[in-house]
Amino acid sequence: MSLRLETEMHVVRSRALALSAIALALILGGCTSAEAGRWTFPPPVASPSAAAAPAAAAPAQAAVAAPSTAPATNSPSSPDMPAMSPAGGATTATTATGSSAAPSATEAPDPNAPAYTVADPNAPALLSGAVHDVDFPIIEKDMTVATGYVVHVWTFGGTVPGPTLRVHLGDTVRVHLKNETAMSHSIDFHASQTAMDDQMVEIAPGATWTYTFRADYAGVWMYHCGTAPTLWHIANGMYGMVIVEPRGGLPTVDRELVFVQSEWYLGGQGQPTSYAMANAAAPAPDFVVFNGVATQYKENPISVAAGDRIRIFVLNVGPNEWSSFHIVGTIFDTVTKEGIQLVKGNAGGWGSQAVDLAPAQGAIIELTIPEKGMYAFVTHAFNFVGRGAVGVLMAK
Ligand SMILES: [Cu+2]
């Protein structure tokens, strides 16, 4: 019997209306300095107001809008932003807010599942100094990955994606891992260069390890657990982004956002993801998401301003599918994808409509919001839009 079939026995099958999402902003990039230069994730959250506070020295921040401000479902202003619809035809997951992200499998939403937590989409501030000590506890927990769906995730720092680290070219990063689970894990920073048997060692339950690297190249880099089967450890939430700013730093813009695209292959309510589904030669993810949760920024649009210059750090962690990152109604005038640059004001007048990212590729995208209104962002692999890979920038 496959893992998926086994875990399905635990699934609560109900089609009742799911709880509407009432969520607090989570400071993905928030840092608490227990000692000079030491950063701890996740940051302690004392109260909702504390959770909503921007990180010190971060770019312009805006709290995630309340669910009530979500655009009306089934009233897209663009043919590129369809209403959510069942992706696989077997099950329709309809939330109390009228939106849905339908799984392709036989799962049904659990009306008693906790509301998801909206991930803060704002990019973190550059870590100060040139040597950074960062704490990454390895933690298991339950996470609502779409309204009505809970996965028992494995995490770096208690969130999926894990914390975004932002450093400057040439900085030294010392990541202090402590495995607080009953399973071995490891970590692989793509921003680093090292032998597998040097830094990417197995960290046994209860053990600690410090992964040290120097950020030799600028870019948007993936990190992930490398413990076998690596596919499963990634599929179950063990990934995140490292931003390495280029020599001289990045120019100031009005707003900076982070989107990590990933897939969920459900293994049953409250269970880890299905390795068998993730490992299929033609994988069919239940959800494809930005920052861990299906449609979270469709139901909680990100407020921006017309005329804003916006920089987006985009990473596709897969583990299997490509991303074609697109924002309806805009054109990217500046793109740095895997070290290849499109520069604003180039002599030929070139622009970019969608940025293709294979698993483990990242990009820095810049655009100017042309006017007030709604801008949907998606992967333009449109079969995944109905599975959760859609959000909204609402320009006031
Ligand atoms: Cu792992």
What's the structural blueprint in terms of helices and strands?
Layout (H helix, E strand, L loop, with lengths): L2 H6 L29 E3 L7 H5 L78 E16 L2 E8 L8 E4 L3 E8 L8 E2 L6 H4 L8 E7 L4 E6 L5 H6 L3 E7 L9 E10 L10 H4 L8 E4 L5 H4 L2 E3 L4 E10 L4 E5 L6 E4 L2 E3 L12 E3 L3 E8 L4 E7 L10 E6 L1
Parallel strand pairs: 1-2, 2-5, 4-9, 10-13, 12-20
Antiparallel strand pairs: 2-3, 5-7, 6-8, 8-9, 10-11, 13-18, 14-17, 14-19, 15-16, 15-18, 19-20
The structure holds copper (II) ion (CU).
The site of copper (II) ion has 6 residues, from loops.
In short:
The protein is 7% helix and 31% strand. With 396 residues, the protein is mainly β. The strands form 4 sheets. Strands 11-10-13-18-15-16 form a 6-stranded mixed sheet, with no helix packed on it.
Task: Look at the structure and name the CATH superfamily of the largest domain.
Answer: Cupredoxins -  blue copper proteins
Category from helices, strands and their pairing: mainly beta
The tally of domains stands at 2
Mean pLDDT: 80
Morphology: globular
How would you characterize the overall build of this protein?
This protein is mostly beta strands and 396 residues long. The protein has two domains: 3-61 and 116-245, Cupredoxins -  blue copper proteins (Immunoglobulin-like, Sandwich); 67-115 and 255-395, Immunoglobulin-like (Sandwich). The chain is 7% helix and 31% strand. It has helices at residues 3-8, 48-52, 196-199, 230-235, 275-278, 296-299, and strands at 38-40, 131-146, 149-156, 165-168, 172-179, 188-189, 208-214, 219-224, 239-245, 255-264, 287-290, 302-304, 309-318, 323-327, 334-337, 340-342, 355-357, 361-368, 373-379, 390-395. It is globular, with a radius of gyration of 20 Å. The N and C termini lie far apart (53 Å). The relative contact order is 0.17. Bound molecules: copper (II) ion.
